[in-house]
Design a protein that fits this description.
- This protein has 312 residues and is an alpha+beta fold.
- It has 2 domains: 14-157; 176-311, Glucose Permease (Domain IIA) (Distorted Sandwich).
- The protein has 7 helices and 14 strands.
- The strands form 3 sheets. Strands 3, 6, 7, 8, 9, 10, 11, 12, 13 and 14 form a 10-stranded antiparallel beta sheet that branches.
- It is elongated, with a radius of gyration of 21 Å.
- This is Peptidoglycan DD-metalloendopeptidase family protein.
- Keywords: Signal.
Amino acid sequence: MKYIGSMIVCLSMCVLFSAGFIHADEESDARMALYKKTSAITDIPWEYLAAIDQYERQVHDDPKDGRVTAIEADPMFWTGSAGEMPSTFFPDGWGLDGNGDQKVQLENDEDVLYSIGTYMKSYGTTKDDIKIALWNYYKRDLTVQTIMNTARVFKKFETVNLTNRDFPLPLQANYSYRSTWGDARGFGGRRVHEGTDIFANYGVPVKSTTYGVVEMKGWNKFGGWRIGIRDIYNIYHYYAHLHSFSEDIKVGDIVQPGDVIGSVGASGYGPPGTSGKFPPHLHYGMYQDNGKNEWSFDPYPFLRKWERMTKN
């Protein structure tokens, strides 16, 4: 499914609502009530509905005025082919009345959630069934993987209000950093630096800054021993030049802010095991996905913010 809209890098603590501005806790409570109501009548676990909505919050702007969810169903999904295409490919639309007002409204949260839930249930209610339904809806592997992983995070913590963050190194460690995003780099050909370097001693613990799922772990000739974590805001967090990984960390693990994932090193710039070509430091990068493309953005302002938050 194709989308047009602007991307937001981080979730605001308040959203625009019909009655004005409401606190994030109230907003997340309202969302949870809708997810659980829809789950009860469609048999689709609430965390999948929540994860779809969370994903679309990163593809579109925050929910439109008067709404709590951000899901924007494609008109073709909603109304069907309307005689414009062969019914074999596009039969009836999936738009349904979810709140009993005898109307089927594309901008009504209950109608949208009920329609999406009913569509998913048509494939079945197991994890594999839901995965197939998501692929047929979005037609993109990374999108399906992101939604499935976000659902796991929501299920584990039993909430969608996961706003805590942590600085990636212990504040008591001897470290230093500045904005290095966009600086020139020469190894492997001329390129730009897609992150912030935090210099510290060998072996200093490296922590997850966010809630998410370990998506990548292993060697990269540029980043050395590295770990990639995708969070619930569809941002990929890249931790590179590690000396070692935490003993029990593996791909697919759910992490939260403060979980130790490895230690500072100087690995990289060559085949597996290469180390010492530069001073020990953590390379920390952030990449946003908008449903079609993924790109790097400057993590420095976020690191400064999380450092201040961790101190308080």
